[in-house]
Write a structure and sequence with these properties.
Rossmann fold; binds guanosine-5'-diphosphate; 31% helix; binds magnesium ion; alpha/beta
C-alpha cells in the first residue's frame, strides 16, 4: 500500500461533528497505553500524525484522519483511564456508543497488549463489536517485548479469552520490527473493498 496522504480532519463529540460524506471508516480502539498512537503512526509511516489525539483537550474526543482521500481512520479515545469521574465516564461511554452505530464502519481494529490477559473493558469492547456484527481485527501490540516461547503462550491465553475468535483475526505487531505490517494493510484493504497500489 502506498500512502499518498494523511490529513487530520476533525475531532468530534457528537454526530453533527462527524465528517458528512459516504467514505468508509476504519475504527481503532484500545485501552490507554496499549500503544495505539504508536501503532497508528507506525502503520501510516508517519512520525506523529496520532499526536493530535494526545494534545490536551483532544484526548477524549473521536479523531478523524483522512487517508489517501479514500477512507477515514477513526481514533476513538483509549478506555480504562484512572482518576476519571463517574459522570465523565458516562459521557465518554455515550459518545463512543453513539459513534459505533455509524453505518460506514467497515472494520474495527482492537489493540491488546500481548503481555496482558484482556481485562473487562477489553472484553466489553470485543463483545460490542461482535454484537453489532462489525468485522474485527485484533492487534497484539509490543510483540518485541516477549520471547518466541512467551509469545505463543500469550497468544493462546488471549485467544481463549475472546469468544469465537478466528486465527486470521489476530495479528501481532511491534513498532520496533514492524512485523506483519503488510498483512495488516491487506486485511484493511479487503474490508474497505479497495486496492491501494
Ligand atoms: N517496545 C515497544 N514499546 C511500544 C510499542 N508500541 C508502543 N510502545 C510504548 O508504549 C507506550 C504507550 O504507547 P502509546 O502509543 O502512547 O499508547 P496509547 O496510550 O495507546 O496511545 C509508549 O512508551 C510507547 O513507546 C511496541 O511495539 N514496542
Ligand atoms: Mg495515545
Amino acid at each position: 500500500m502506498i500512502l499518498k496522504s494523511v490529513k487530520f480532519i476533525t475531532s468530534a463529540v457528537k454526530k453533527s461533528d462527524y465528517p458528512d460524506d459516504e467514505l468508509a471508516h476504519v475504527v481503532f480502539a484500545g485501552r490507554s497505553n496499549v500503544g495505539k498512537s504508536s501503532f497508528i503512526n507506525s502503520l501510516l509511516n508517519v512520525k506523529n500524525i496520532a499526536r493530535v489525539s494526545q494534545t490536551p483537550g483532544k484526548t477524549r474526543l473521536i479523531n478523524f484522519f483522512l487517508v489517501n482521500e479514500t477512507f477515514y481512520l477513526v481514533d476513538i479515545p483509549g478506555y480504562g483511564y484512572a482518576n476519571v469521574s463517574h459522570n465523565e465516564l458516562i459521557r465518554f461511554a455515550n459518545m463512543i456508543d453513539e459513534y459505533l452505530t455509524h453505518p460506514k464502519i467497515k472494520i474495527a481494529v482492537l489493540l491488546l497488549d500481548i503481555r496482558r490477559v484482556p481485562n473487562q473493558d477489553d472484553l466489553l469492547m470485543y463483545q460490542y463489536f461482535r454484537s453489532i456484527n462489525t468485522k474485527t481485527l485484533i492487534i497484539l501490540t509490543k510483540a518485541d517485548k516477549l520471547s518466541n516461547n512467551q509469545r505463543v503462550k500469550q497468544i493462546n491465553l488471549i485467544k481463549k479469552s475472546l469468544p469465537n475468535i478466528m486465527n486470521e483475526e489476530i495479528i501481532t505487531y511491534s513498532t520496533k520490527t514492524k512485523e506483519n505490517q503488510d498483512k495488516i494493510w491487506s486485511v484493511l484493504e479487503t474490508s474497505l473493498e479497495v486496492k491501494y497500489e
